UniProtKB/TrEMBL annotation, chain A:
<feature type="transmembrane region" description="Helical">
    <location>
        <begin position="106"/>
        <end position="124"/>
    </location>
</feature>
<keyword id="KW-0812">Transmembrane</keyword>
<keyword id="KW-1133">Transmembrane helix</keyword>
<feature type="transmembrane region" description="Helical">
    <location>
        <begin position="131"/>
        <end position="150"/>
    </location>
</feature>
<feature type="transmembrane region" description="Helical">
    <location>
        <begin position="66"/>
        <end position="86"/>
    </location>
</feature>
<dbReference type="InterPro" id="IPR001851">
    <property type="entry name" value="ABC_transp_permease"/>
</dbReference>
<feature type="transmembrane region" description="Helical">
    <location>
        <begin position="303"/>
        <end position="320"/>
    </location>
</feature>
<dbReference type="GO" id="GO:0022857">
    <property type="term" value="F:transmembrane transporter activity"/>
</dbReference>
<dbReference type="GO" id="GO:0005886">
    <property type="term" value="C:plasma membrane"/>
</dbReference>
TrEMBL record, chain B:
<dbReference type="InterPro" id="IPR003439">
    <property type="entry name" value="ABC_transporter-like_ATP-bd"/>
</dbReference>
<keyword id="KW-1278">Translocase</keyword>
<keyword id="KW-0472">Membrane</keyword>
<keyword id="KW-0813">Transport</keyword>
<dbReference type="GO" id="GO:0016887">
    <property type="term" value="F:ATP hydrolysis activity"/>
</dbReference>
<dbReference type="InterPro" id="IPR003593">
    <property type="entry name" value="AAA+_ATPase"/>
</dbReference>
<feature type="domain" description="ABC transporter">
    <location>
        <begin position="262"/>
        <end position="508"/>
    </location>
</feature>
<keyword id="KW-0677">Repeat</keyword>
<dbReference type="GO" id="GO:0005524">
    <property type="term" value="F:ATP binding"/>
</dbReference>
Length: 411, 509
């Protein structure tokens, strides 16, 4: 017996590179969501007779949805950890209201008010994180309470009035554009700032993707066929350039909020995939006990996630308030549901442990394009709600179906 | 004995990679108390799950004859309809429902969908009196003690007109008084004509109440002994449970034993919820560099609880005692601290506590020491893949790449991932809890080889196992644990299965 156990590693096969269809089916969920977005865009482009992808409308879609996308970043992180946050809409409203009070009643300069608002968001997050992480109340309950508490506080501090007339600089964040007058009008066939930004983004993307692939190849971890990799890369580059072209041709160029959003998407994607913190979030959501028994301080993770969500909700509140030039008692209503829907449409798992920032952003864009396209078509809010609800249900249903098929294939 | 109420013929049950039962025969006479004995993993519970329909007809081979006719149960309800009721080791009462509601759960006293509460409570009270329990049936099940809950389970079984009652380790969680009451009740039920099958590790109990005993070992029937004439001793039963060939299932090793690395002194642990229950009772043990130390104990003896309480107090409450690392006292109040002190614990339940099954090999391997791969909070994924790749080769993890999802690996390979994780945390002491549970013979040999390698590298290794031959095959010294107390410390030269089993079944004085 002792001598008959051979070392099977000698005969182990090399890493299999899946080809064509097999690879695509293995990535069905990730690919499916992008395909769904493109199909929806194409559909409404046709239905609206080209109005959807008019430069100014594209700019509008981005600005309109920026705060939902921002919230979706924090939300998907919370969902990956196995929690939920129902309070973000109220928190955004509360911070918006506080910023108005700081500026108008207390005479703060806009940037001091900004920083103070983000700090308030962090404190709100710490408050909720404390109850979730250290007291052990389910996040659903804590944030349901938070939703009521911070909505109430918003109304109290505003005394049920809206604050308007925010300073110009404040409003830039939500409604401003990048260097609008940088180039003289006669050269301004396209907005050159936007063109430069778009090209730089594509170059950075291609460079980082090629480097990543080279590293994976060196470590013999690459299972993506080259043809697929380059098609995908070319496709994404084309989309970014297309978007650049559209924005460069719009009235004012690149919305500032798009730059903020772009930086946050890249930064948080990196945090989720490459930082110890991000990796511990996945470990916590994937198997809480295993994470604890591996020495992960899961309470700290939970706490930090809510602090982070509070700061992002504060930023969303500032953007929203700036865009409308108004902080009202009803602001941000139902934002949380849009953000949660975005995360789930984007492939996050209800049980935790699965989800990506990019997926949540794509999910948020699907909702945003649906909203915008249907509004252009003059579809009523009633029907819009119905359709959005069905999209959420079917997206998650597709997920569940897919998983069951995969686990059946294993048996 | 007049006739057999139950005959199980050539029962074979296979799980992926493991043959849990092979050609098992069981004959139970009407109106007797029939005990089933065997080591953990011998197949006792599996056999009872086959009998009660938990594993439906078609998922096993062989025949079950009940009262002379072949039965094919599709589920538990099916077997209950024929009068077979199983009471599991983990009680299945709903703590928030009343005792009466629990007794009639799924079998409600109702009329056109409305529950008749008077009948429910009156009938429940009658059943409770039958099991010798003077209890108001409207109290919540969670508010009564474990011993009484056990009796409520039996009352529930009686409400279903039970003919064959199966008790799985009924006294494992009970104190002496409750145990005595329960065993008396089982005798009483036998006199009423109810046949009982009782699974137990407590041999003195078996000798006291059983009419006959069937011994299982490695998924096979070894023998059935009649206990009537009193000639069968506990030693005789133990011999049947452990006697098996032991040639060359374990790799050779020459131990090189150094200084003491970890010592546990006067270690007492209480149950996390029931703070008054002592789970580990002033345990003392030590392990040296390069040494493999075994902890032998039956189910419920407190093995895992002892290990997990040492590992950063991840189990238990009101823990007292001292840990010494290399001779100096240390505190390890959290898992993180324990890991920093060089202690590692590989769990007995790798799926629930050991792995993130939806993530890949490399991220599981790095899971306990991600900091080693990170600079200022950022993980070097490239180095992570290299490290995981090295473990994949050295541990012989059979997977195409380190990006394979751990949930799809076989048990043996999952165990190697868990071991890799802890080896990467670079511990001085490794506590391995049932390291070969649920994995096949070939993979077991590999795990033993890895354990030897760890010891040869100068690590102190503690192995907890239910399989005595395994401990005898790989350890240098073995502690036996019974009811939370360390009952003996046996050098390998003196250890025999019979001796260990005696200490493992040693009752409190």
């Amino acid at each position: 017996m002792a001598t008959t156990v051979k070392d099977p590693a000698v005969t182990a096969p090399p890493p299999p590179v899946k080809h064509g269809l097999a690879f695509l089916t293995s990535r069905l969920r990730q690919i499916g969501i992008f395909v769904a977005l493109i199909v929806i865009v194409a559909l409404f482009q046709v239905l609206t007779g080209g109005a959807l992808l008019m430069p100014d409308n594209v700019s509008n879609i981005i600005v309109q949805n920026s705060y939902i996308l921002l919230l979706a970043i924090g939300m998907v992180m919370i969902i990956v950890a196995g929690h939920i946050d129902l309070s973000v809409g109220s928190v955004a409203a509360f911070v918006g209201a506080m910023s108005g009070i700081m500026i108008q009643d207390w005479g703060f300069t806009w940037w001091v008010a900004f920083i103070a608002s983000l700090v308030i968001g962090g404190i709100v997050g710490a408050w909720q994180g404390f109850w979730v992480a250290y007291v052990g109340i389910p996040a659903f309950i804590v944030t349901l309470a938070g939703m009521l508490v911070f909505r109430g506080l918003t109304q109290i501090v505003l005394e049920n009035q809206r604050i308007t007339g925010f300073p110009e600089e404040y409003r830039q964040l939500g409604g401003g554009f990048l260097f609008p007058g940088l180039f003289p009008p006669e050269t301004n066939l396209l907005d050159w700032t936007t063109v430069v930004l778009g090209v730089v983004a594509v170059v950075l993307l291609v460079a980082s993707q090629l480097r990543g692939r080279a590293t994976r190849a060196r470590l013999k971890l690459e299972d993506e066929p080259a043809a697929w990799f380059f098609t995908k890369l070319a496709f994404i580059a084309a989309i970014i350039l297309g978007l650049t072209y559209l924005l460069a041709g719009s009235r004012s160029g690149t919305p500032i909020v798009l730059v903020v959003l772009g930086i946050l998407i890249v930064a948080y994607s990196l945090v989720m995939s490459n930082s110890v913190f991000g990796r511990h979030i996945y470990a916590r959501g994937g198997n809480l006990q295993a994470a604890q028994l591996s020495g992960v301080n899961t309470k700290r993770i939970d706490f930090m996630l809510f602090v982070n969500m509070g700061v992002l909700a504060a930023l969303a509140g500032l953007i929203f308030t700036g865009r409308l030039n108004s902080a009202g008692p009803g602001a941000g209503n139902l934002f949380e549901l849009d953000a949660i829907a975005a995360a789930f449409i984007g492939g996050a798992a209800v049980t935790g442990g699965v989800g990506t920032v990019i997926g949540a952003i794509t999910g948020g864009l699907i909702m945003g394009v649906l909203n915008n396209g249907m509004s252009l078509l003059g579809v009523g809010i009633d029907v819009q709600q119905f359709i959005k609800g069905m999209v959420l249900l079917l997206a998650v249903g597709f997920d569940v179906f897919n998983k069951r098929r995969a686990s059946n294939a294993l048996k | 004995m007049a006739e057999n109420i139950l005959r199980m013929r050539r029962i074979t049950k296979t799980f992926p990679g493991v043959k849990a039962l092979q050609d098992v025969n069981l004959d139970v006479a009407r109106g007797e108390v029939h005990a089933i004995c065997g080591e953990n993993g011998a197949g006792k519970s599996t056999l009872m799950k086959v009998l009660s329909g938990v594993y439906p007809h078609g998922t096993y081979d062989g025949d079950i004859e009940l009262e002379g006719s072949v039965v094919e149960f599709k589920d538990i309800r099916d077997s209950e309809r024929d009068g077979i009721v199983i009471i599991h080791q983990e009680l299945a009462l709903s703590p928030f429902l009343s005792v009466a509601e629990n007794i009639f759960l799924g079998n409600e006293r109702e009329k056109r969908g409305f529950i008749n509460w008077n009948e429910t409570n009156v009938e429940a009270a009658k059943l409770l009196r039958r099991v010798g329990l003077d209890l108001n049936p409207v109290v919540r099940a969670g508010d009564i003690g474990v011993g009484k809950q056990q009796l409520v389970e039996i009352a529930k079984a009686l409400s279903k007109n039970v003919k064959l009652l199966i008790l799985d380790e009924p006294t494992a969680a009970l104190n002496d008084e409750d145990s005595a009451h329960l065993l008396g009740l089982v005798k009483g039920l036998r006199d009423e004509g109810i046949t009982c099958i009782i699974i137990s590790h407590k041999l003195n109990e078996i000798r006291a109440i059983a009419d006959s005993v069937t011994i299982l070992r490695d998924g096979r029937t070894i023998e059935t002994l009649s206990l009537h004439d009193g000639s069968v001793t506990e030693e005789r039963i133990i011999k049947g449970m452990v006697g098996r060939d032991m040639e060359s299932r374990y790799p050779d090793r020459t131990p090189v034993i150094g200084e003491e690395v970890l010592r546990v002194e006067d270690w007492t642990v209480h149950h996390p919820q029931e703070g008054s229950r002592v789970v580990v009772d002033s345990a003392n043990l030590s392990v040296r560099a390069g040494e493999v130390v075994g902890i032998a104990g039956l189910m419920g003896a407190g093995r895992t609880e002892l290990a997990m309480s040492i590992f950063g107090r991840s189990y238990g409450s009101r823990i007292t005692g001292t840990l010494y690392k290399n001779g100096t006292p240390i505190t390890a109040r959290s898992v993180g601290e324990a890991i920093r002190h060089g202690i590692a614990y590989a769990t007995e339940d790798r799926k629930r506590y050991g792995l993130n099954l939806i993530d890949d090999i490399k991220r599981n391997v790095s899971g306990a020491a991600l900091g080693k791969l990170a600079k200022r909070g950022w993980v070097d994924s490239g180095r992570e893949a290299v490290v995981a790749g090295e473990y994949r080769r050295s541990m012989n993890i059979k997977a195409p790449t380190v990006t394979a999802i751990t949930g799809k690996l076989s048990g043996g390979n999952q165990q190697k991932v868990v071991l890799s994780k802890w080896m990467f945390s670079d511990p001085d002491v490794l506590i391995l809890d049932e390291p070969t549970r649920g994995i096949d013979v070939g993979a077991k040999y590999e795990i033993y080889t890895i354990i030897n390698r760890l010891a040869a590298e100068g690590k102190a290794v503690i192995v907890i196992s239910s399989e005595l031959p395994e401990l005898l095959g790989i350890c240098d010294r073995i502690y036996t644990l019974a009811e939370g107390r360390i009952t003996a410390e046996v050098p390998i030269g003196q250890a025999t299965p019979e001796l260990l089993m005696q200490y493992m079944t040693k009752e409190k004085d």
